[in-house]
Amino acid sequence: MNDIAVIGFAQSSHSEALVPVFEQALQDAGLGRREVDFWCSGSSDYLAGRAFSFVSAVDAIGAVPPISESHVEMDAAWALYEAYLKILAGEAETAVVYGFGRGTAGDLNRVLALQTDPYTVAPLWPDAISLAALQARLALEAGLFTEQDMADVAGGDLAHPYTATPLREHDVAPVADGASAVVLAARDRATRSRERPAWITGIAHRVDRQGFGERDLTTVPSATAAAVDAGLGPDVDVAALHAPFTHQELLLRRALGLGGGVRYLPNTGNAMFSGGLSRIGAAAAEIRSGRARTAVAHATSGPLLQQNLVCTLGGLS
């Protein structure tokens, strides 16, 4: 069984300029493009507005030499999971995982209604912020946290104007374009390329039911289950959570059992299909720089934290 590490990371606010992102990630990893055994991407043809949009993204890799490539129609954190299994199975020694999405091309909060239940919810066209506000209200009424807790996490104040009760402007991550890339390597290659790799000590993902009436929106059982399967323990220095709304970060902290001594990495925007992967890259960067011994990264997909991935990392293996 291979030990696998993150050895390179890069991100950009330009969703379709992938060549510089690849170059920066590979330079960070100390690898050449021809030394990559497997490429895996995460994006959405629907968001891009054209069929097989990921094929045009492959042009940024180069036509020669031929490559081994795959794609997932969701956040690239799940592409990283596929690449992780590829290396774990011994079918590759190195991999580049990348994600990209242009959320500002349309009304993202309205477009996201199409990922809800197609029979009972999607026909109502509920925007994502209004749905999140309902979830926040349920959590507040259940006493899981207060509006002051939300203000403390978001760095805002309670006097700020509302966007959708009880969410304020600073509770909603701005829609952003983005691309990111993470380089993975098996143990032998990782130790040759980098002095301090960020070892993946566990990774798992789980999904809850789609119907809003079929699950408790104030808990995140899929995140809790993924954390258990990833082996997340109490010794965590840094956490990078993928939460588009303030209250969702608070729900995730509870679901993952994170204590008060954890340092949380800020999430500055809601970059579709690269946001979750960037959280893994950011957590790994803390390990690789020596600023943390242990870290946990989280990615989410689907409405109201429906599907969650948890990745634990460490500096020593």
UniProtKB/TrEMBL annotation:
Q: Which InterPro entries match?
A: Thiolase-like
User: Which keywords fit this entry according to its UniProt record?
Assistant: Transferase
Could you confirm whether the keyword Transferase appears in this record? Answer: yes
Single GO molecular function? acyltransferase activity
SUPFAM superfamilies given in the database record = Thiolase-like
Q: What is this protein called?
A: Acetyl-CoA acetyltransferase
Species of origin: Actinoplanes derwentensis
